[in-house]
Specification:
Largest sheet of chain B: 2 strands, antiparallel
Largest interface: A-B, 23 and 28 residues
Helix content of chain A: over 70%
Radius of gyration of chain A: 22 Å
Strand order of the largest sheet of chain B: 1-2
Number of strands of chain A: 0
Largest sheet of chain A: none
Shape of chain A: globular
Shape of chain B: globular
Order of helices and strands of chain B: HHHEEHHHEEHHHHH
Number of helices of chain B: 11
Number of strands of chain B: 4
CATH class of the domain at 1-82 in chain A: Mainly Alpha
Number of helices of chain A: 6
CATH architecture of the domain at 1-82 in chain A: Up-down Bundle
Helix content of chain B: 55-70%
Oligomer: heterodimer
Radius of gyration of chain B: 21 Å
Strand content of chain A: under 5%
CATH superfamily of the domain at 1-82 in chain A: NADH-ubiquinone/plastoquinone oxidoreductase chain 6, subunit NuoJ
Structural class of chain A: mainly alpha
Number of domains of chain B: 1
CATH topology of the domain at 1-82 in chain A: Four Helix Bundle (Hemerythrin (Met), subunit A)
Chain lengths: 174, 345
């Protein structure tokens, strides 16, 4: 076994273990930490494919910024251990077989309909220069449209979260 | 000539041990320097009892931390309470691995760079590792099950996420000018002089606003005065590390000082030409001088840190947020646009 394969399997194992742990944990902060482990392991997989830039961005944006906000929210709301209700039991009974079935289905389709050839390490250009060329030349329009979309989402969040307008008398208008 | 694999591993291990040893010693003596300098600024002597000029004080402090009772309060969430200081320290120490300290040297035809590893996205790696380091502080605050700790952890995560954006943007100007994420390439782009005497460092090359933004954001990222709200002792006892004692407390302390040194390294590499400086004398001196210039620049930054600590009061929380989002971020953006226009032109 080559070092690459060993590393691939190790990161993959961390990834899957983190994902399963995320579902199994009942405390939100443990769930959030498992998700961070999943994202960090994914960054490792990207690195093995030679996509250093994507790996770094994965860590900086997802593990370092978005998940910090998740943890922040959990801490701020002081969310406790989640309750186990009848509904959640039903969800487990139906959900676990459903996920297994879906996974098998997806795996079958992928294995059947692709020439299952492993991508050799570093075969795809993943350095920052290539990604910059692609983003700002070939995919400039989708890139810019995405930024507008995100801006609209931010404005929507600000409107939703903003204080309701108060009338001069200080009463809240409904 | 590239090294054979076993020699490469041997060289890497030796370099790691040396760098880690120097770094931890530097951390210990930064604490000593801070106590000494702040002491003199406040008309006191600072540490004087242990050794000449109190120079053995760090060793005494270390011994004290190791032999103190390591208390774990009863209501903490134990796994995270124990993991948090480790997360803080491990990620702080890891980021030094991509920092180059000088040119490469050659033994028996093998070239060995003075750097643990030269990654072509080195700067991004440092930013990524620092962004993960927030969890140490945030989780310490949460797992302590104490309202002061929790408030400190909350403040730390909000502050670090806010200032990380300005920090990243302030560096983009330098990246545009050097065209690489590799720290070694960035330093190499700064060699030479303008008109024969002004060094071609980025700070003299139009990046002074970028440097200003970086410096302020870096102070906020390392939770130093005037941005030390996560541990504001007048309101939060000791903030996120209120419940920690002995070596666990010391680990937070070491993480903070290691982060200071990393930030000083990045500032030196990106804005002050890294190890470049006047070279003269016999060959051996020429090998050592770059390391000396690098150390001098780091020392200057650390001194500035301490100086600021001895001078400025702490921000109020709303001032901190308003400053970060309404002043620093637009300024960093303006710098980025101006640099881009200048380079394109």
């Amino acid at each position: 076994m080559s070092v690459h394969l060993i590393l691939f399997l190790a990161f993959g194992a961390v990834c899957v273990a983190g994902a399963v742990n995320l579902l199994a944990q009942r405390h939100p902060i443990n769930g959030a930490l498992s998700l961070i482990a999943v994202m960090a392991a994914l960054a490792g997989e990207y690195l093995l494919l030679g996509a250093e830039f994507v790996a770094a961005v994965q860590v900086i944006v997802y593990a370092g910024a978005i998940m910090v906000l998740f943890v922040f929210t959990i801490m701020l709301l002081n969310a406790g251990v989640e309750e186990r209700t009848k509904d959640s039991r039903v969800a487990i009974l139906l959900g676990v077989p459903g996920v297994l079935l879906g996974g098998v289905l997806v795996g079958w389709v992928v294995l059947r309909h692709s020439g299952t050839e492993a991508v050799p390490a570093g075969a795809l250009p993943g350095d920052p220069a290539t990604i910059g060329q692609l983003l700002f030349h070939e995919f400039l329009l989708p890139f810019e449209i995405t930024s507008v979309l995100i801006l609209i989402a931010i404005m929507g969040a600000v409107v939703l979260a903003g204080k309701p307008a108060t009338s001069p008398a200080g009463k809240v208008e409904e | 000539m590239a090294l054979p694999i076993w020699l490469f591993i041997l060289a890497s291990v030796i370099k790691s041990v040396i760098v880690l040893g120097v770094l931890l010693t530097a951390v210990a003596y930064t604490v000593w320097l801070e106590r000494k300098v702040v002491g003199h600024m406040q008309n006191r002597w600072g540490p004087t009892r242990v050794g000449p000029f109190g120079l053995l004080q760090p060793a005494a402090d270390g011994l004290k931390f190791i032999f103190k009772e390591d208390l774990t309060p009863p209501h903490v969430y134990k796994p995270l309470f124990i993991a948090a200081p480790m997360i803080a320290l491990i990620f702080a120490l890891t980021s030094i691995s991509v920092v180059p300290f000088g040119n490469s040297f050659t033994i028996h035809g093998y070239t060995i760079p003075l750097q643990i590893t030269d990654v072509n996205t080195g700067l991004l790696l440092i930013l990524g590792i620092t962004s993960i380091g927030v969890y140490g502080v945030a989780l310490a605050g949460w797992s302590s099950n104490n309202k002061y700790s929790l408030l400190g952890g909350l403040r730390a995560s909000a502050q670090m996420v806010s200032y990380e954006i300005s920090l990243g943007l302030s560096l983009v100007g330098v990246l545009i000018m050097s065209g690489s994420f590799s720290l070694r390439a960035i330093v190499d782009a700064q060699s030479g002089h303008f008109w024969g005497f002004i060094p071609r460092w980025n700070i003299f090359h139009g990046q002074i606003i970028g440097f200003f933004c970086y410096l302020i954001a870096a102070y906020a990222e390392t939770n130093r005065i005037p941005f030390d709200l996560p541990e504001a002792e007048t309101e939060l006892v000791a903030g996120y590390h209120t419940e920690y004692s002995a070596m666990k407390f010391a680990m937070f302390f070491m993480a903070e000082y290691t982060n200071m040194i990393t930030v000083a390294c990045v500032a030196t590499l990106l804005f002050f030409g890294g190890w470049h400086g006047p070279l003269f004398g016999p060959p051996l001196v020429r090998v050592i001088l770059p390391l000396f210039w690098f150390a001098v620049k780091i020392f200057a930054f650390l001194f500035l840190y301490i100086w600021v600590r001895g001078t400025l009061p702490r921000f109020r929380y709303d001032q901190l947020m308003a400053f970060g989002w309404k002043f620093l971020l637009p300024l960093a953006l303006v710098n980025l646009i101006a640099t881009a226009i200048a380079v394109a032109w």
